[in-house]
Design goal:
Oligomer: heterodimer
Number of domains of chain A: 1
Order of helices and strands of chain A: EHHEEHEE
Number of helices of chain B: 4
CATH architecture of chain B: 2-Layer Sandwich
Strand content of chain A: 25-35%
Structural class of chain A: alpha+beta
Helix content of chain B: 40-55%
CATH superfamily of chain B: STAS domain
CATH class of chain B: Alpha Beta
Strand content of chain B: 25-35%
Number of domains of chain B: 1
Distance between the termini of chain A: 19 Å
CATH topology of chain B: Transcription Regulator spoIIAA
Number of helices of chain A: 3
Structural class of chain B: alpha/beta
């Protein structure tokens, strides 16, 4: 299924994050190249990116939809998540205290982007005040 | 997508069995159930994640918040997580060093 593309526009509501995961994992399974473990990694990264997108729309009080675009067969599976939130600086995210520091328990949020970075082979954030695009890639080569 | 939450008693411990997917949609119910346990005075909790199909950082946040809340009431939160794909999320984030994580409820009860 070289070059296969699926696009999905989801309402910026929490209930629809599961739909984005389902569509991406179905496409990755149908592509047939990634292992189930790598598809799980991609699902989790997509869930994190869609959660951030929905929260960005909520903060901006916009009813616009979040775009999820998944393509497979060009050396890997690539997913782009685009929102129309207020944007952010991925380089300016605060670090959490070390896990051995009792103050670590004060931080219930902020794990999504570190998880994304750890789970996929490539990640790009393109962000402005007009919104954010997150591009995630799990490569076939990394599957072997 | 659904999330089932059941509580049973094992001596002084409350075992909260979590089944289904924990994400931004279902995490609020999970958080509320943990708060209810604290309000009921049940502050030593084992969260059994054996039948969790999916857990993202929102779920981790609920567990971190739950641990903090339970400890502030002289209790604790112990996890049961035999599935490698769920455990991986704790490993990546370093939270394996924060939580006591076991392969079975029996092992968690014995350690608590």
């Amino acid at each position: 299924m070289a070059g296969e593309v699926v696009e999905l526009e989801i309402p910026a509501q929490a209930e629809f994050v599961a739909l984005a995961r389902l569509v991406v994992s179905t496409m990755a399974f149908a592509d047939g190249t990634l292992s189930p473990e790598r598809i799980d990694d991609l699902k989790l990264a997509v869930s994190e990116a869609c959660t951030n997108a929905i929260e960005a729309h909520s903060a901006r009080r916009t009813a616009e939809r979040v775009l999820v675009r998944c393509s497979a067969g060009l050396g890997g599976v690539e997913v782009c998540i685009e929102d129309r939130g207020g944007g952010f600086d991925p380089a300016a995210l605060p670090d959490h205290p070390p896990v051995t520091d009792p103050a670590r328990l004060e931080f219930e949020r902020g794990l999504g982007i570190p998880l994304i970075r750890a789970l996929v082979d490539e990640v790009d954030f393109t962000s402005s005040t007009q919104g954010t695009a997150v591009r995630l890639v799990v490569r076939y080569e990394a599957d072997s | 997508m659904d999330l089932d939450l059941d509580v049973s008693e094992r001596g002084e411990l409350s075992v909260l069995t979590v089944r289904g997917e924990v994400d931004v949609s279902t995490a609020p119910r999970f958080r509320e159930r943990l708060i209810e346990l604290v309000n009921e005075g049940r502050c030593n909790v084992v969260a059994d994640l054996s039948d969790v199909d999916f857990l993202d950082s929102t779920g981790l946040g609920v567990l971190v918040g739950g641990l903090k809340r339970l400890r502030s009431h002289n209790g604790d939160l112990t996890l049961v997580c035999p599935q490698s794909r769920i455990l991986k999320v704790f490993e990546i984030t370093g939270l394996t060093q924060v939580f006591s994580i076991h392969d079975s409820v029996d092992a968690a009860v014995a350690a608590s």
